[in-house]
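anyone seen this seq b4? input:
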Amino acid sequence: MNFIRKVGHFIKRVVQIFLVLILMILGWGSYQEYADTQAYNATPEGQVALAEKKARTQAEKAESEARARAVRTERAKAFTEKAKARKEAVAEKAKAKEEAVARKLMLKQSREESAALAAKSKPARDRVEARAKACRAKRMKDYSFGKYHFTQSLKDPSSFDQVGFPRKFADSYEITYTATNSYGGRVQSTHSIPVTNCIYK
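predicted toks r here
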């Protein structure tokens, strides 16, 4: 048992030593590479290489900065255009709203003016309609009265028979009728009945 423990301990030590040796070798390689690089950089060729590398680095940095500036410029331009479009849309919306309000006000004003004109002209229309109605009633009264007196003037009033509707003129109604004459025969004739001529303003 002690032997196995000793063997295990020995193997552990060997592994540790081996790892330390590997690390030392790697460290020495890195140091040697660093030393070689420093020695090369100290030579004229190394100085030229360093200058070229620095120039490439600066060029790459300048190119990167230029690309970054271009990206920022494009983003700023896109943002400005978007803001401008949004502002124009808001202005168009406000303009449309103002036009709608103006149309609504004009329509309201037009309706109010129409209502005022209608209210103002209503008495005149009422007077005209009342006169027309009164004149129509007077014409019908004249027609009925004239027709009655005409039928009574016939030889046989009971034989009077009107044909169709009267023809209306400005100052008379003309009727077509049939009636019996003195010989007992039925004849057809026309008669004009004077009526009121509706002339008014």
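The radius of gyration is 62 Å. The chain has a mean pLDDT of 84. kinda curious what u guys think
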